[in-house]
Protein: Tetratricopeptide repeat protein
Organism: Rhodocyclus tenuis
Amino acid sequence: MLRKNGLGVLLALSTAVLAGCAGNPMRQYDGELKETVTLVKTGAVRQAVELLEKNNAPGVMTQDKDLLYYFEKGELLKLANDYAESRDSWLKADAIVQQWEEEFRTNPQKLIGDLGSYLISDKTRRYDGQDYEKVMLSSRLTLDHLLLGSFDLARIEMKKTYEREKLIESFRDKEYDKLKEDGDKQKVSSDPKQLKGYPLDDLDTPEVRELKNGFQNAFAHYLAGYFFEVTGEPSLAEPGYRNALQLAPHRQIIQQSLKNVGRKKPGPRESDVLFVVESGFAPSWKSLTIPLPIPRQNGVVLTPLSFPLIKSENSAFVPASISVSGRQLPVETLTNVDTMARRLLKDQMPGIILRTVVRAALKSVAQEQANKANPIAGLAVGIASVVTEQADDRSWRTLPERISVARAILPHGKQTIEFQTGAGVYRGEVLIGNRFTIVPIRLTGGAVYLAQANVAVDGAQSVSADTTTPLPASTATKGKRVKAVPKTAPKAADQ
């Protein structure tokens, strides 16, 4: 029955591929997002949103807007300082992720044993997000809620982050057991060492080995610790800092925050300021073809098979410090998405190998059956088998590669900030006010995006945002200092 169904699926896909239909499962997502990333680099974030909409318009994509659309749109709107619309897009993405979570709770075997990925390609599987993307979505929603002054929603998202981590851990444990069972039945080796020519060393660096897994990120837990501390709940802040330190050992800013939790408080005209420095773009996922011996009716045949490969194309620059009115604040990286992606792929590679090898054997049987029934059908299946032999390249491309932080208690009022961008020196102004201030900064290699939120925390859930338009870093390529004066929104009154 499996082989018969497999032949039917392959024949159907053959028709779609040969017809060249738009919106087919073999969408080249990584190539599609390159232009979007280029626009963000130049500061043209609104044009990037327009391009995203164009690529996902009716008639271009036959299916409904998917998880990646809401991922990318939320990120682009955040860069445009449109936090409300960014939040709304990510909430739609979160609803999709919650659907995946509910399916796992009620029927985990449905998610673990996806027939389509065995018979055709991993790209035909519904995209539920990489593990690190699911957790990162929660942490980015948390930040949006804080910038909008929605503290209760931020608290819910912080709790959800922890719960999501636990659920993903449980899912991967069950998946591993199922894959091991399938591998034993099929007598297929899932050892990555059989992939001659695959750069396995890229998945086994000291940084990758240091990570506990490929989905928990230290920034999410540090942000929770910071929030609870500045809102007067040090007993809740401490666990956040401890979790962050477990995920990112030896980070001085986490150690200091844990040591001083509840002790260092801003004065009457001071603010506890957190600079969130996001750099670069998440790595792209590529498809690498490697020949493996596959048993067929006429013996073992060396068959070209495709496996995912992570490629860093936009190296992230992290400034060593931020100067605030002449005071140097050290910047430390808490989360490296590139390293997380490599750890995730390292952990999932045995399962990917198993699916790919089993798929190749089933395709071979399906083609032999088609040849016997109808030579033309056999040709179609053969072409589809070649065309669809691609590793899944889908991922959240506009996500930053690195998330770093700097923190200090600073006096209220306008403050001049200055930092290196990798293409020169950026110089601007921020307005410090209220009990705590969050200043998000994004360095894309060719542009700097700076925004700010000053939040009154004494019972009020309000926000004032002082923003700059994206400043192309190319204006500072010769080391010239460029002063960017924010356009100030109405300031929320302290309460």
